[in-house]
Amino acid sequence: MDAPQAPATEDRKGAAGPVSRRAVIGWAGAGVALGAAGVGSVAAAARREGGGSAAVDSGSAVPFYGEHQAGIATPVQDRLHFAAFDVTTGDRAALVAMLKEWTRAAAAMTGGREVGGGAVDGLPEAPPDDTGEALGLPASRLTLTIGFGPTLFERDGEDRFGIRAKRPAALIDLPRFPGDKLDPARSGGDLCVQACADDPQVAVHAIRNLARIGMGTVSVRWSQLGFGKTSSTTPDAQTPRNLMGFKDGTDNIAGTDAKALADHVWAAPGDGPEWMTGGSYLVARRIRMHIETWDRAALKEQEDVFGRTKGEGAPYGRQHERDTPDLKAMPVDAHVRLAHPDSNGGLHILRRGFSFTDGTDGLGRLDAGLFFLAYQRDTRKGFIPLQQRLAAHDALNEYIQHVGSAHFACPQGVRKSGEWWGQGLFG
């Protein structure tokens, strides 16, 4: 991506001082089913580039090759572009060829390089190999994580690509939970790619290039932009807040906790097919927040819903955010009490959610909320029992609704150059 042809920023001065044009336009220009990231993302970009708290080494590259896919235990970046794809061909060889090309492109983009022959150095008579909007930008800690959905293995009883026997038992069709109001147009998918970066344009560029490469083989089923991470895999850092104003992810699994990752996140030998060893299962849920109703709730009611103070984030009966919670000091339907591992037999999932705002719903209400992403060793023992408990009893349900849902098997990492995404599944 680094190239001398384009400057990294174009500054326009305003009352608040110089803010880069890229920070203002943020998510524009993706050309692939994009929604508006909203004023929250613009403000976050402005703070990052205008002198506020910046991510550590936000321009650096995250290694693409390794035992596990990056973007799972990796320290959570500032921005997200998530896309689910439908495979539009029945040709297995064409799908495999695309996955190989996607892998080469992913390795280049996460390393801060252009795709293929680049954006400007190819034949003038041919479309460029790279779309070009990331020229001059650093890698920005870009990670790309791929997952395979249940319908890739079987749809309407058909073994579409001869891989039905390799479908992991843990890759089930998620049950419908009480209160779900799922939009089929925002659910499911044969494949998914999660792009996380500290620059929104870098994340959008990555998905845009993969969608272009896949044209004729896959099409975008739905996509979601996210900003303002709501969970952290670096517990020593400041805990982020969600759009309800509460700190989220205090008790998340740390990306450096090898034992917890092995116990709760990475699929182990014998858990399922060999191609999933070292991989993880991803649940993606688009959770709409009833912002206007929440904003009219009294502070005490808001705190009772979570079981934490809004300012410090301390659990009820404690003084500091990271104090061991006294679950019995919370209302019986408090979110923290119901979701805490001590209430669920030690159950842990790794969360890396993001806030979203996608304009309004036509009735003057913000279409905003949480794009929930959770990784686990086995969804049947992780997200499903936890969500069944929350859906039945959580006081937070009055203010939220799950409107999109998907489940994917994210395979082991690509260990070296020449290997490719899904090689163990299709090879």
How would you explain this protein's 3D organization?
With 427 residues, the protein is an alpha+beta fold. It has one domain (32-51, 58-155, 180-236, 246-426). Helices cover 22% and strands 19% of the residues. It is built from 11 helices and 11 strands. The chain has helices at 21-25, 39-49, 92-110, 150-153, 200-213, 258-264, 291-295, 299-306, 335-339, 383-393, 423-426; strands at 11-14, 17-20, 79-87, 143-148, 191-197, 218-229, 280-289, 350-351, 354-360, 366-376, 400-410. Strands 3, 4, 5, 6, 7, 8, 9, 10 and 11 form a 9-stranded antiparallel sheet that branches. It has a two-stranded antiparallel ribbon with strand order 1-2. The protein starts with 10 loop residues before the first strand and ends with a helix. 46% of the residues are buried. Residues 1-55 have low confidence and may be disordered.
Which SSEs are present, and which pair or pack?
Blueprint (H helix, E strand, L loop, with lengths): L10 E4 L2 E4 H5 L13 H11 L29 E9 L4 H19 L32 E6 L1 H4 L37 E7 L2 H14 L4 E12 L28 H7 L15 E10 L1 H5 L3 H8 L28 H5 L10 E2 L2 E7 L5 E11 L6 H11 L6 E11 L12 H4 L1
What proportion of the residues is helical, as a percent range?
10-25%
Counted by DSSP, the helix tally is 11
Order of helices and strands: EEHHEHEHEHEHEHHHEEEHEH
Tell me what portion of residues adopts beta-strand conformation: 15-25%
Question: Mean pLDDT, as a whole number?
Answer: 88
The biggest sheet, with number of strands, parallel, antiparallel or mixed sense and barrel status, is: 9 strands, antiparallel
SS-based structural class?
alpha+beta
According to DSSP, the number of beta strands is: 11
Q: What gap, in angstroms, lies between the N and C termini?
A: 30 Å
Counted up, domains total 1
| Low-confidence spans | 1-55
Radius of gyration: 21 Å
Structural shape? globular
